[in-house]
Structure formats: C-alpha cells, structure tokens
Amino acid sequence: MIKILVDAMGGDNAPAATVEGCVQALKNDKELYLVLTGRQNDIEAELVKYKYDKSRIEIVDCPDVIDMNDIPTEAIKRKQSSLIAGFWKLKKEDDLCALVTAGSTGATIVGCQLILGRIRGIKRPALCPAIPNSRGSVTLLCDCGANAECKPVMLCQFALLASAYAEVGFGIKNPKVGLLSNGTEEHKGDPLHQETYKYLSKMQGIDFYGNIEGRDIMLSPCDVAVADGFSGNIALKSMEGCGKLVLGVMKKEFSATLSSKIGYLFMRKAIKNMRGQLDFEKFGGALLLGLKKVVVKSHGSSKASTIAASIANAASIYRKGLVPAVEKKLENVDFDTLIPEEE
Amino acid sequence: MIKILVDAMGGDNAPAATVEGCVQALKNDKELYLVLTGRQNDIEAELVKYKYDKSRIEIVDCPDVIDMNDIPTEAIKRKQSSLIAGFWKLKKEDDLCALVTAGSTGATIVGCQLILGRIRGIKRPALCPAIPNSRGSVTLLCDCGANAECKPVMLCQFALLASAYAEVGFGIKNPKVGLLSNGTEEHKGDPLHQETYKYLSKMQGIDFYGNIEGRDIMLSPCDVAVADGFSGNIALKSMEGCGKLVLGVMKKEFSATLSSKIGYLFMRKAIKNMRGQLDFEKFGGALLLGLKKVVVKSHGSSKASTIAASIANAASIYRKGLVPAVEKKLENVDFDTLIPEEE
Question: Cα dihedral sign for B255, B256, B258, B262?
C-alpha cells in the first residue's frame, strides 16, 4: 500500500477537481490509499458524486484554507489549513509517502522548509518540472521558482538533485546538465552564474554540458537545465505563455474558414498527438526536490486529470526511491570542499 | 533620402542574405540609400546576381570579420571589421541615420557603448525586441540581453526607453509597463526587482502596471515588459525555443498520415496566417534603445527577408523620431532624485 496525502482545498478548482482527481487516481492504481485534508463537508459533498472504494480514502477535517493572496510565512501559522495540516501529518507519520497540492507555491515551499525538512546536506528545496523537449523526452528545469535568490552551492545542488530525478524518475543514464544563462559561451552570465560554471565543471556525480540558452530547454541535448529560481520561473512561464498563445492562434485560424474547418476534420488525430507531445502537465505537477519525502506541486489551475497525474507521479517517484537515490549521490560530493568560500 | 549603414558580413548567412536583403529593402522604399560595410569583393560577387539601382548602394571595404566566438571587448579593437568600421562611420557622419547588423550581439553592444554613444542621461543601451502577443499587437521586452547585471536605475530607464518606443514605433498611447518577475505579487522577486518595483511605482512618464510573469509577455495587457538583461534574454530564448518546438511537432504530425496530409491541403492558408501572427521577426531584429542613433540587431540566422525587414524597421523608427522622443521623455524624469542611493 502506498499512502499519499492530498491537499483537497488547494488550487483554483478545489475541492471539485481535487476530489475527482483522487477518485481517478484510486481507479488507476490499486495500491493507493489517499488521505485528503480539507473541509470535511465540502469534500464529502464531492465524494458522493462518484463510485469509489471507501476503505481507501480518509478525510482529515481542516476548516481553514490558504489562498494565493496569503503571505506564505504568515499562512504557515494557520495549522488548521489543509496544506499546513498535511505537512505536519507527512512529517510525523512514517507510513505517509508523499504529499500532492495544487495550492499556493509559496506556502508549499515554506511548508517544505519549515515543517517537512530537507535531506541532510541540502541547503534548499527546489521546484523541478519536467518540460517536453524536441527529442520526445523531457528536460528537467531546476529550480523554477522556490528560490528567487541563489548562491553557487545551491545551483550545484540543484544539478545533483535533478540528475538523480532524471536517472530515477525517467531512466536517463548519465543525464547531461546545462546551466541556464544568457548565452552558451563560458564567460556569459552574471557573477553568480560565472562562478557556478566553474564549480559545476569540477563537480563529481554529474555530467556537466556547459551553459545553455532558454531555447535549449525545449530544443537541446541536455536532460537537466539548472537555473536560479528567479530566471528559471521566468523561463518556465515564458514557455507556457508561448505554448498557450500558439494553441490559441491555432484554434482561431483552424476554425476561421470552411476550408480550414474541413482540414481540421482530417487532422484531428494529428492535432491531438501534437497536443499530447507538448503537454506541460503530462506528469502532473512539478516535483519539490531535496526533501525528506516526495512532494508534488500541481498547477494552480489543475483539472481532475492533472491531479490524478500528480498523484500517480508522486507514487511512481516514491516507488522508484528518489530520496535514497539523492542521499546516495550526496555521499560522493563534498560541497564544503568544492565551494570553500560559501557560507 | 534616408541613409542606412548595413553590416554586410554579420550573421550566419552573410554576405549572401545581407546583400539580397539590401536589394529587397531598396525596392520597397524609394527613399533609402544603403552603405554596406564588408569585404568588397564578396559583396560585389553577391550584388551582380540582382538588378538594383547602383546609385543607391555604396560599399566600404572592410577586410576583417568578427564572428560569434570573438570576445566583444577584444573584437572592437579590429577597426577594419565590417561592424566596427560601421559604428565609427555612423558616429562621424551626420547624414547616416541608422545601422543594421546580424552580427555578434556582444560586439554590437560594445560598439554602441564605446563608439556610437548613449543619449545624455541614459546609463546603458538596452536590447528591445517586439514580441507578438495575444492581442494581435506586440509586447516590447526590454532589456533582453545587453546587460547581464542591472541596477534599479537601469531597469527604470528601460521602462522609459521602451515606453517611448511603444508610443513612437507602434502608436500605443500610454503604454502599460510590467516588471518581469517570478510572480505578480508586489513582494516577489530578488532585492533588485523588489527595489525597482518601488521606483517604478512613483516614476513619472510611464504607466506602471505592476509585476508580470513570463507568460504575460505573450498573453498580458502590458505593452512593455521590463527585464534585467539576464532573465529577459532567458525569457526571449525560452519563447523562441517553445515556438520552434511547436512548429516542428506540428510539421511532423501534419505530414504523418494520409489523412493529416489531406487536412493540410485545406489548412495551408490557416497555417500561413498562424505563422504570420507568431513571427518573432516580423519587424526584423531587436532595436537597441538609448543610443544617439537608431541601431537594429537582426537575428544571427537572419534570411534576406529578415534583413530587409530590419532595414525597413530602422528607416521607420528614424522617420518617426525615436531619439528625439526619448530625449523629450527624459526631460520629465530626474533619475538622481528618484533613485538617490544609486551611484
């Protein structure tokens, strides 16, 4: 049995989408057991809409809710919220394997840092989504928003964390690591990135490729794109915005004339395939790396299918043993020796 | 007559594409007169392929060439290169209105800074492309790579420069200015962006909208996205990579089956329209703002049509009086009072 905690109140479409996603996830994976945190009445009102195995769902009543406008460090004090209560349970109960939330990113990160806790030796958790790339595989973008301010040691650790995720989660051997910068040449970037380049070049346990540009996230030979959380977030959102605009323009143009409407009938399958290949949310949400347990942050606008994918992803990553894999990788790198000037 | 200098040797497809682009530009605009810098023999060997008005093209022989691998501050010492000789001519000759190059971005920026010179009061030039957006208009992204390290005063000046460009170049009244960050909330970002937010809020002469995310560059109500050159470059390239991947997948899927091939025949016009709306290079290259004359940096991979568009854009921006418009805007803002701590 794999026991996963789901923040039933997190996200724009909660609890309807989260509850439906939980029911879907239970159907797809017979080993799952889900603990839903949130307003019991609201969750039960959704659950009655579905047929599901009642012995595999448990509700923990949390009357309070955190929304996107709350300041994360304040929000964390509300111990009766679905997210914060979830983090406390996750920390305390050994049999809980993972947490899935579509709630506030800021509050999630604060919960990871201040409640759940990091793997020994890791300075900061990092948010790491899997971006579809031109090889039909994924590029792991790490960090994409957990840390707006970074130091070289953090970027080096992101390289290690995402390499472990690429190996364990996607079966990529010797994942290639690129450093996201404003050009491919070694001298590019600000002092933070120039310094990080030097350390990544001599770091053990990763296969450093060099600097990469934003376009290389989706087009490159790299499996991991290391970024500070500020520019990593901008990269992710810029790609999302572009994808959304392209699909919007496509939809408009493809229904603009009789000819294009006829064409669309012949192309439906091709367009569906295309959308499938470009789906940012194929794996549900982004993983939070560097923590003692698996945490998946699903998009705020997650639909039921995205929540189900996030739960499935959390279960899969737990089964494959990401946390022990990171701990093993950490044994081979002494960050204090690699980066002596730091802290 | 509008006299424009073209770096005939700059870019991956030079001088073939640059020379062909020059010939196209001359045909489209009867007032143009072009000065091509580069290897005279190579340029002449291309020119003989076309019919054009010989009285409207002049060649300045420059035996040396700067390529992407040169270090910009070293490259600038090569005064016989097509780009550097171009900058010296542009600075010295009053009747030259603008320079167009598809050469090295780094060398172009160094040429702007060290040879051509900035408008009085402007700290740094900024690279500012026009990105297609969901309103069928453009978002001006400023800076997108000229300055990897920024200070608040620079970002505030980018807001002013790009606002002037939006007004003069695209006829947008009271352009809305967003600050590119890792979230929309006021507290988001690193100290540089948090501080800049405060100054932009009280700055005269611009209409500050607040923080925007990467997705808002293509999807938002803003006309200007202010960015430090590091994350602005990453945003631009990330969108380019995404656009390229989407078009690549589309091409593959649309020719994968007989059904989709038939569909394509009905959709050719729709797909052409779509590509037109999403073309990053509709206006040729990115403008360099804050300089005494108009400089357009065309993409390294520019084809002839892109070079022609860049030349047309340079002529248009000169005609519309961007430089005097910036100077006028500068009269209303006292940056030393606005940002007293700076320098």
Answer: negative
Q: How far, CA to CA in Å, does B111 sit from each of B78, B118, B278? A: 11, 11, 31
The alpha carbon of residue B22 is apart from the nearest alpha carbon of chain A, in Å, by: 28
* Other beta carbons less than 10 A from residue A63's beta carbon: 14
The string of DSSP codes covering A55-106 is GGEEEEE--B---TTS-HHHHTT-TTBHHHHHHHHHHH-TTEEEEEE-S-HH
B270/A257 touch (CB, cutoff 8 Å), yes or no: yes
Distance from CA of B49 to the nearest CA of A (A): 35
Is residue A226 a contact partner of residue A159, using CB atoms and an 8 Å limit?
yes
Helix or strand or coil: residue B288?
strand
Number of H helices, E strands in chain A: 13, 12
Of residues B321 and A283, the one with the higher pLDDT is: B321
DSSP A219-285: HSS-SEEE--HHHHHHHHHHHHHHHHHHHHHHHHHHTSSHHHHHHHHHHHHHHHHHHHHT-TTTT-S
Cβ distance A236 to B218 less than 8 Å, yes or no, reads no
pLDDT in tens, B43-91: 999 999 999 999 999 999 998 776 666 676 776 776 678 999 999 999 9
The CB density around residue B191, as the number of other CB atoms within 10 Å, is 10
Total residue count of chain A as it appears in this document: 343
Contact B253 A270 (CB under 8 A): yes
Mean pLDDT calculated for residue range A202-226? 94
Q: Is the ipTM of this complex over 0.85?
A: yes
Count of positions (residues) in chain B: 343
Vertex A214: Cα angle to B185 and A104 (nearest 5): 30
What would the pLDDT profile of A132-169 be if each residue is shown by its tens digit? 999 989 999 999 999 999 999 999 999 999 999 999 99
At residue B343, does pLDDT exceed 50?
Answer: no
Contacts of B274 in chain A (CB under 8 A): 246, 249-250, 253
Cβ-Cβ contacts under 8 Å, A154 against chain B:
none
Q: Please give the pLDDT value at position B66.
A: 67
Measured between beta carbons, the chain B residues lying within 8 angstroms of A242 are: 218, 238-239, 242-243, 246
CA A287 to chain centre: 3
Radius of gyration (C-alpha) of chain B in whole angstroms: 21
**Would you call B259 and A253 a contact, using CB atoms and an 8 Å cutoff?**
no
- Residue whose entry in the numeric block shows the structure tokens 């999630």: A108
Whether the predicted model's global pTM rises above the 0.80 cut: yes
Residues of B in contact with A231 (CB under 8 A): 230-231, 234
CB atoms within 10 A of CB B341: 8
> Which member of A71, A190, A242 has the closest CB to residue B218?
A242
Q: Across the interface, do B260 and A278 touch by the CB < 8 Å criterion?
A: no
Distance (Å) from the alpha carbon of B87 to chain A's nearest alpha carbon: 24
Q: Evaluate whether B9 touches B302 at the Cβ level (below 8 Å).
A: no
| Chain A neighbors of B133, CB-CB under 8 A | 245
Decide: A290 and A124 in contact? Cβ < 8 Å. yes
- Give pLDDT tens digits for A37-89: 999 999 999 999 999 999 999 999 998 776 666 676 776 776 678 999 999 99
Helix (H, G, I), strand (E, B) or coil at B59: strand
